[in-house]
């Protein structure tokens, strides 16, 4: 196992980064903003303890324009365990602004994605806005489409209902 504590963010899943890059590109020229969610890295056999960023959560009601994005904190799910944030800089500057730094208090890692939103157009930062390492891992994540892959028969079986009873 790698050298990290069980709660440390040790990397980001390639699919999560790809999603954020695409969302940033689609939001351009406005800023994009989301929250990062992690899962135990041990579930992905990457040789590390800690957390792997696996999801980018889009918060309903987020307001965005070319110079800022604001998340409505009242819309953040109560059960959501954020490990940080991600947002874009349409001007391509990969340095945090003073406003960015003011929002970095929660979470371990904060990502800024810059125009033109390519694979090398992002940085990971700590709470103080200093660059930090965040390796990208090509891991198999659960397909969100699979969450809805069930039939009425599956529901009946889960509830213990015999189809002939109806």
UniProtKB/TrEMBL annotation:
Keyword DNA repair (UniProt): no
MF GO annotations: metal ion binding; metallopeptidase activity
Biological-process GO terms, alphabetical: proteolysis
Keyword Zinc recorded: yes
Segments forming domain MPN: 10-131
Record key words, sorted: Hydrolase, Metal-binding, Metalloprotease, Protease, Zinc
Protein name (database record): MPN domain-containing protein
């Amino acid at each position: 196992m790698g050298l990290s504590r069980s709660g440390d963010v040790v990397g980001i899943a390639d699919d999560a980064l790809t999603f954020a890059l695409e969302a940033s590109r689609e939001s351009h020229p406005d800023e994009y903003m989301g929250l990062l969610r992690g899962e135990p890295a041990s579930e992905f056999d990457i040789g590390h303890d800690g957390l792997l960023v696996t999801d980018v959560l889009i918060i309903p009601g987020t307001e965005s324009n070319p110079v800022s994005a604001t998340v409505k904190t009242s819309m953040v799910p109560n059960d959501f365990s954020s490990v940080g944030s991600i947002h874009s800089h349409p001007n391509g500057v990969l340095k945090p602004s003073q406003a960015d730094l003011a929002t970095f208090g929660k979470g371990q890692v904060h990502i800024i994605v810059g125009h033109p939103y390519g694979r090398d157009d992002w940085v990971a930062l700590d709470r103080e806005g200093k660059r930090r390492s965040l390796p990208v891992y090509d891991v198999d994540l659960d397909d969100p489409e699979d969450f809805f892959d069930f039939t009425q028969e599956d529901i009946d079986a889960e509830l213990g209902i015999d189809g002939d009873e109806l």
